[in-house]
Structures are given as structure tokens and as C-alpha cells.
Amino acid sequence: MSSIDKSGTYRLGDRTVKRLGYGAMQLAGPGVFGPPKDRPQAVAVLRAAIAAGVDHIDTSDFYGPHVTNEIIREALHPYPDNLTIVTKVGGKRGADGSWLKADAPEELRSAVHDNLRNLGLETLDVVNMRFMFDPHHPAEGPVEPQIEVLAELQRQGLIRHIGVSHVTSAQVKAARRIVDIVCVQNLYNLVRRDDDALIDEFAAEGIAYVPYFPLGGFSPLQSDTLSALAKRLGVTPMQLALAWLLKRSPNILLIPGTSSLGHLEENLAAANIELDGATLAELDAIGKA
């Protein structure tokens, strides 16, 4: 398995983690709903990620629901001392697999306890509050009620650190007036560059930025330029897209997900890709086209 040491490290709360981590979403069934087709394979992927040096896993109890957290516990509990597990609350799944908002105070408290139980933890390392004012784009709206609930749970010792997801700059500022925010998780990748200014702003503040769908998500990145550059470098387009993100800013933490050992190996190998100035300029131009 590839080493990820070349990815470097960054602060996440009171931990320092390697910048190339693992996202657990794809360990659930199709559409992130129900059990996986091959549970032993899902367990094997998690154990291989840890063996390769991954020390940051992103999950949520509404993946499945409950499925990914139960698999993480089966595969890795008792957890390595250096492992940071980040989860998120604010959503739930309908009986038909739909994604629904669940951000009332009692729903948030219940979600935190569900995560604790299913992960087998007494304290959650980081909890991201996922806001769903608009399912497709961050949209302005009040964040204080939800952040205050998480801050209360933090004071009770159930949460160590708090992050936010699917948010605007103004919402991050509002949340920070209540509690320290250690990470922001928004949609960002080579071709979706809406948060360019936010990333630089957070880098200056020492806040980790964690792109979700770093490889495009359910619709993988497609670019003739990306494919041509990857072929020239002898890597896959997805590896090159991850390497670009690592180069983009030192506060970016990556959480590419997969249920395949082969794809895990490919993702982790992105830490070893060297990008010269000319290649970076060509990649930058893709997102500005």
C-alpha cells in the first residue's frame, strides 16, 4: 500500500493529521443507503487505510443510516490512539433513501448519541453541523440555534471539537462567535471552485478546509484536459485531481472515499505525485474555463 507521508500534515482541533484521509460514505449500499454488497470487503478497506497510515476518517450516522459507523466500529475498535474520527449531524434518511433535514435541538442531541453508540465512543473527536437551507448550494440562514446545541453537548464532554458544513463565509463567522470552529466542509474540487476565496481566508485563520466530493461525487470529474495531463504524467485523472487539491492550499484535508482496495491504493498514491508549475497552471485553468 502506498505511503501517504508526502501529503504533509495539518491541525484538526487538538490533533495533527495527515492531509490525505478517508471518507466512509461509500461503505454503505448503493446511494449511501442500506448495507454494502460486501461487508467483509468494507472492513478490509478500512483496515488497509489505517495500515497505510490514514489517521483521519470522515463519516456520519446518517450514512446507511448507521451502516458506516457500525462497520468502522467492527473494523477498527478499539481505535488507534492517533485516529481522528469526524462525523456530521443535521440530516437523516427517509424510508425511501431520501436525504432529509434533521436539525431541531432534540434531533441533534439524538444524532450525537447515535454516533457515540454506533462508533463505540464516549466522546466524538469532531462533529460537523451540516446545514441544509438549500440542498445544492450553501445558502444564507441562521446557524446559531444549531451551533448552540452542539456547544452545549461540547460542554457536557460529548464532543471535543465542532465544525460546519455546506456553509457561507458569513455563517462561519456567526458560528465562530459562539464556539471555536476547527474545520469547514464544503463542496470543492478541480472544476467546482466557488470556495477559492474561503479556502485562502481559512488558511490565514488556521482552519482546516475539507472538500466533500473531491473527485466529483456521484458524477465523477470529466475533463479532456485533465485526462490528457494524467496520461502525460502516467497517473489516473482522479489521482491528478487529488494531487492538485493537496497542492492548492496547506489547510486542505482530503477524504476521498471508496469501497475498493484497488481504488484506495490509487487514492493514497496521489500523495506521491509531483506537480511542476506548468502542470499546475494547466490544471488551474480547468476550473476557470
Summarize the structure in words.
The protein has 289 residues and is of the alpha/beta class. The chain has one domain: NADP-dependent oxidoreductase domain (TIM Barrel, Alpha-Beta Barrel). It is built from 10 helices and 11 strands. The protein has a 7-stranded parallel beta sheet with strand order 3-4-5-8-9-10-11, covered by helices on one side. A two-stranded antiparallel ribbon has the order 1-2. The protein has a two-stranded antiparallel sheet with strand order 6-7. The longest helix is centred in the middle third of the chain and has 15 residues, at 105-119. It is globular and about 55 Å long. The model has no long low-confidence stretch (mean pLDDT 96).
Task: Give a quick precis of the structure.
The protein is α/β, with parallel strands linked by helices. The protein is 38% helix and 18% strand.
Structural class computed from helices and strand pairing: alpha/beta
> What proportion of the residues is helical, as a percent range?
25-40%
The spatial strand order of the largest sheet comes to 3-4-5-8-9-10-11
Number of discrete domains? 1
Question: Which strand-content bin applies to the residues?
Answer: 15-25%
Average pLDDT, all residues: 96
